[in-house]
Amino acid sequence: MFRYFGVFGLLVVQVIAVQVATVNLLDDKYELMPELFYLDNFDQCMLKGEDALFCTFTFTLGPLGNSSDFVWNIIKNISSNEQNYRHDQLRHGICVPEKCQDEYNNSSSVEHILQKCYNQKYNTLGLKGSISQLVCQSNKASFSIDLYDIIYGSIMFSYIIFVIAASVYERYYLYGQKLNMYDSGPSRVGLLISAFSVPKNWERLRSTDPSSDHRKLRSIQGIRFYNMICVIMSHTIMGILGGPVSNPLYTEQSTTKVLNMFIANGWYVVQTFFVISGWLLTYHFFVMTAEVKNLRISHVFWTIINRYIRLAPAVAVMVGFHSTWLVHLSRGPYWDMFVGEEYRNCRKNWWTNLLFVNNYVDNNNMCLHQTWYIAADMQLFVLSVILLYFLGKNPIKIKVIFGLLLTIGFLVPGIIAYVNKYDIVIRQYPEVLYNLNLLRLDHWHILYSSAYSNIFGYTIGMVFGYLFYRYRNTCFRINRIHVILWWLLTFGLCIFMVLISALFYNPAFHVTPLKSAFYWASGKNLFALGIAIGIFGFTQKVGWFARSMCEFEPVQVLGRLTYSTYIIHVAFIRWKIGFKRYPASADDTMLFFSVLGDVAVAYLGGTLLCLLVEMPVSAIQKMLGFSVHHNRTNRIPKSSEKSLETLDLDGDNTKM
Q1: H or E stretch including 91?
Q2: Three-state DSSP string of 377-417
Q3: Are 591 and 276 in contact (CB under 8 A)?
Q4: What is residue 478's predicted lDDT score, i.e. its pLDDT?
Q5: Omega before 650 cis (within 30°)?
Q6: Is 546 strand, coil or helix?
Q7: Among 48, 147, 256, 608, which has the minimal tally of Cβ within 10 Å of its Cβ?
Q8: Which residues, listed in sequence order, are joined to residue 90 by a DSSP beta bridge?
Q9: Rounded to whole angstroms, how far apart are CA atoms 169 and 177?
Q10: How far is CA 474 from CA 219, 281, 467, 477, in A?
Q11: What residues form DSSP beta bridges with 91?
Q12: What is the DSSP letter of 337?
């Protein structure tokens, strides 16, 4: 490993030197090539009434043949490097009556108009081309309101009216008669209505549990919040660079910068959520089995059903929104590419999201791409609950089962990468990013979004959840050596596993199936191990400022909003990119402020979704669950229920 650190340092210096030389070399050549991305004034074009026609298309260039090939050779050489855009494929959007007026008046075929117009434009450079991926818009709405839109809109409007009424009822009737409530108890209907009260749910969202276990694990909410920022940052930057940019050289050189590996290879951060999920599930299971001596298979069944009911409503609301009203909110040059496609995918595959199989079934046309994680997590949850039930009956097998799962989780990604000869990383090159082509790569689905490729991260969380349960009342003697090792095995290991991918982006690095298999087996799995060690250290009061940042009180509330924010944030990003009027001028500062804006908007939307959907479902579950346990002889005591409730984001099941 230390040898890799030395090579890594030398490559950093080499990459910086090559980058400076390359910028100066390419400036002149880029000036000679046709503009890769171009957009006319969309809104002005729409003012032309019946003559309005705005078309986006790809114009694939080639040499004219009877002229100088100087410009074509520049285009061909630059495009041949996979780190660059395909500069022979111009992505333009024009107002046809303005830019191709003569052809527009003499032909009825839009494709023929653009073909002739653009060939005349680029013949002087010795170039010709063909039109593809043509999408045109007039000043009439591209998507009409149909029955599904009306049904979804009516349901949501009625629901919001009901929530307002429930909030008023709870505040001014139940709350006003608070003294009498404890005498005779509120009616079942009153409790049910109060579950939808926004003020009451806001109080629940802000409440904390003073139990010792909760205090030790409270850093988990902070970790969720900071990881959610990383997720939004990744999706925001991917969205901006996946659309038209006015300075393509910025995108092309992004993977030559070592620190940009936090974005290009930063998807490892999702392993944090698998670790947390496995940790809390296992901890809760052993807490429950300590109280419920006679564990039955029905407990497994109802645990899975309870989990589904907890997750599905918020997903259903957002799937319904993406398949109905999202597409009607606005329009723009790339509206069909980024919003229309999502609308069609959700109309077609909405059911896969509700069954949590969207990461397998027709995954190239996935609705709400970000919910691949929820599907994979649900699948691992079901598997883990069954295994934990077996361990509850046979606790002596726990080391064997955990060891077997860790071995499988470590080997499976490596074997798959080796057999299929997959690349060592999912390369965030411009053409991979453009139009979110990344989400259509086979190895993205197989080695990233599948449940079996994330077994290790979930299992290592289960292992540490079990260790925390076993030793939660033990006070370990921690010295300076332990603290240093903790920092190295958490931040040091995680950062190293991300930044080492800069080696693989360097042209001098030779990728082999064996190297690819080793990194796919070890990279994200060691990252997950580092996260698990980090959380365990936080529970033992190790971590100094890092622990303080994760346990900061406002962050606790924001951490509880993670699930709803995760589901809703992509809707804002898609809307923003589809609305875009001109190619973005990308630089580090612009991306930074874009991320800040998206984080703020996403958490605002996540708060609304949480208060309106997630928290009412949680409250009703706990209300009905208490009545079920209350009538059983082997019920869980109320004190244990309270502990599980507050740890549950409100807890375990509403994790990201």
Answers
A1: strand 89-95
A2: HHHHHHHHHHHHHHHHHCHHHHHHHHHHHHHHHHHHHHHHH
A3: no
A4: 87
A5: yes
A6: helix
A7: 147
A8: 59
A9: 11
A10: 19, 21, 11, 10
A11: 37, 58
A12: I
Between 227 and 9, the higher pLDDT residue: 227
Amino acid at site 493: L
Q: Kindly report the CA angle at 286 between 526 and 470, in degrees rounded to 5?
A: 65
Reported pTM: 0.89
The mean of the pLDDT values for the chain is 86
Using alpha carbons, list the distances in angstroms from residue 123 to 57, 101, 103, 619: 19, 18, 16, 68
Mean pLDDT for 495-504 is: 93
| Amino acid code (one letter) for 318 | M
Of 566, 345, 331, which is closest to residue 436 (Cα–Cα)? 345
* Cα 541 versus chain centre, distance: 30
Q: Which residue has 């006070």 as its token pair?
A: 475
In tens, the pLDDT along 218-276 reads 999 999 999 999 999 999 999 999 899 999 999 998 888 888 898 888 889 999 999 99
To the nearest whole percent, how much of the chain has pLDDT over 70?
Answer: 87
Q: Where are the domains of the chain?
A: 1-32, 36-137, 147-194, 212-646
- 513 token code pair: 């199936």
Q: What is the pLDDT of residues 633-643, one digit of tens each?
A: 343 333 333 33
**What is the number of alpha carbons within 13 Å of residue 79 lying toward its C-beta?**
17
Written as six digits, the tokens of 139 are 């000043």
CA-based end-to-end distance of the chain = 33
Percentages helix, strand, coil for the chain (3-state, rounded to 5) are 75, 5, 20
- E strand or H helix at 168: helix 147-169
Strand partners, 62: 128
d(CA 170, CA 156) in angstroms, rounded, equals: 21
> What is the distance of C-alpha 54 from the center of its chain?
32
What's the length of the chain?
Answer: 656
Determine the Cα–Cα distance for residues 171 and 194; give it in Å rounded to an integer: 9
Q: Angle at which helices 398-420 and 372-393 pack, to 10 degrees?
A: 150
DSSP H helices, 56-187, are 70-79, 96-99, 101-106, 110-122, 147-169, 178-184
Give the CA count within 13 Å in the CB-facing half-sphere of 453: 24
Pick the closest to residue 288 from 277, 302, 299, 279 (CA basis).
299
- Contact call for residues 340 and 142 (beta carbons, < 8 A): yes
Token pair of 533 as six digits: 């060690």
Strand partners, 299: none
17, pLDDT greater than 50: no
Which backbone phi and psi does 556 adopt, to 5 degrees? -60, -45
Beta bridge partners of 136: 55
Instruction: Give just the sign of the alpha carbon dihedral 461, 462, 463, 467.
Output: positive
Give the residue among 493, 432, 492 at the shortest CA–CA distance from 255: 432
Residue 197 has φ and ψ, to the nearest 5°, of -70, 125
Closest alpha carbon to 534 in 220, 213, 215? 220
CB contact set of 313 (below 8 Å; sequence gap of 6+)? 613, 614, 617
Q: How many CB atoms lie within 10 A of CB 631?
A: 8
Measured CA to CA, the distance from residue 371 to residue 562 in angstroms comes to 13
Cβ atoms 609, 567 nearer than 8 A: yes
* Tokens linked to 103: 């052809």
Residue 253: exposure state from Cβ atoms within 10 A (0-12, 13-18, ≥19): middle
| Alpha-carbon span 379 to 360, nearest angstrom | 11
User: What 3-state class would DSSP assign to 56?
Assistant: strand
CB within 8 Å of 345: residues ≥ 6 apart: 365, 366, 367
